[in-house]
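Researcher: Last one for today. Full complex below.
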Amino acid sequence: MNDDVARVLGGDQRAISRMMTALERRDSAVAPVIKELDCKTGNAYTIGITGPPGVGKSTLVDRFTGHLRDLGLTVGIIAVDPDSPFSGGSILGDRIRMQRHYLDSGVFIRSVSTRGQGGGLPRIVKRYGVGQTELGIMTVADTVVVALMPESGDAIQTLKAGILEIADIYIVNKSDREGADRMAAAMRAMLQIASEPQEWEPPVLLTQADRGLGIEELWEKVKEHRSFASAPADDLGQPSLLEKRRSDRRRAEFLESIQEELNHRLKARIENDPTLRLMLEDIAIGKREPFSTAAELLEEKHIAGFTFLSGEGESLP
Amino acid sequence: MNDDVARVLGGDQRAISRMMTALERRDSAVAPVIKELDCKTGNAYTIGITGPPGVGKSTLVDRFTGHLRDLGLTVGIIAVDPDSPFSGGSILGDRIRMQRHYLDSGVFIRSVSTRGQGGGLPRIVKRYGVGQTELGIMTVADTVVVALMPESGDAIQTLKAGILEIADIYIVNKSDREGADRMAAAMRAMLQIASEPQEWEPPVLLTQADRGLGIEELWEKVKEHRSFASAPADDLGQPSLLEKRRSDRRRAEFLESIQEELNHRLKARIENDPTLRLMLEDIAIGKREPFSTAAELLEEKHIAGFTFLSGEGESLP
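Model: Here's the assembly. Have a good evening.
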């Protein structure tokens, strides 16, 4: 196990891949390794890049990675695709477009859509994380970038998707298309209304990733946001925005780890308990109502050897 | 409580609104009412309509509702918007566009994005549910319709969004725009490859909802899919696809009700337990690692009066 820790710290790509696979499976055998590694982490700055399909995220990440490498920085890319039987092709597509960095030992690329996958990855030094991600995992980033394009629909419609509230930086990519300036102006106006004074007001950048335009500005804005978020909240030692975000993330990871394991145990318990299995079957065929059956079960707290968490703080019999 | 049941069955809009609000809050006080009502439900056919922002879902639902009303059917519409401080305007927009049906006693409209909201709804007879929904809740529909438009990006990019796998029927709306036929043809080709023989092969329809074009065909395809899904799986009394879908939905509702309550109790327990609260603080500031701490806690099963579900089937001390 200490061997695994040393291998991961030494940049052994197979050890890192094994560890990430175990983590994806929430295999508790990897817990001691993660525990050892924890104090070595936190030096990377994590940038999340998301946006609707077709907006040019892969090209953007490719060019952004090139820029960071030119500056002598190392990059880790976690590409998150929706778990889909269809999307094998798209992941491959992303990889091909990133091939420019495939043999670069300063770039680590990993897809996390399919489990157990991930052979043949290049040597890794995780430092600047640039991820292609969906909405749900934007919480893992220090700076969140949302990419849109003139054809994403008009700005009002974009608001409707709810993605205007998660970003620290907005990009209107493919800005040579008609309506780009108008869209950026409308977004800036809305963001100005929505932002409180003292708060970070997300900038809106125009980019043409395929021609490398606007990439430098993106990096400048990321650095600006990083400075803003890293600044102490006050003179009294209160945590900075960045520290707060990272603390929230660690708390969430702890709670989610417990919740996932409890849900797993709940399902295992129902499968192994004839009374509960029958109850579930009655629910499925309409002999019992789902919501009220759940409420009754939780009310009794202890049915057929099934111990529930109590919210009141006492230890259950 | 029996009064509430009678009122809901009698179509009392305030009683129904109150009940839906309580359900949204997962208030267990409503459980006995839901239990009584359960055997009266299941007669409505539920159609889920989703798609990217700007694709024209509201107009589509408005026209589709008009068509169903012309056929003498009653309609219930549950409009689900992402929970967002910005989207108040969009919900209002949807409502305005649906105003044509607002005073029609055969149409029930409710938004479920904001809690506690929902006054002034028209008289309700829930029969045909037509909902504007996000991906996550498509599981509640008997027939799932995904609306796209030529500008949603090309067909390959659409696959990437993962929404091509959830639909029973596809619509290319705004089909007067350039590229609609090409997009529909590409989607049909991919769906043919992806569908197994014997399985339902999702049709791809061209619509112009604002002009009412393609709405009749949509209803015909919904009926076709309903027939297909309702057909017995074999002569041996095996459940139909529709019965299977609905059973799965009931099972999921039961499990999710328990999980949400357990998660709620977990959080309450941590807040009330000084040892666990300290543990969470150590995690936040980096003194403890989240994943391994969760694993250790679950391993010990019982820390500081904190009883966990056991997966092995025995009753915990």
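Chain A has eleven helices and nine strands. The radius of gyration of chain A is 23 Å.
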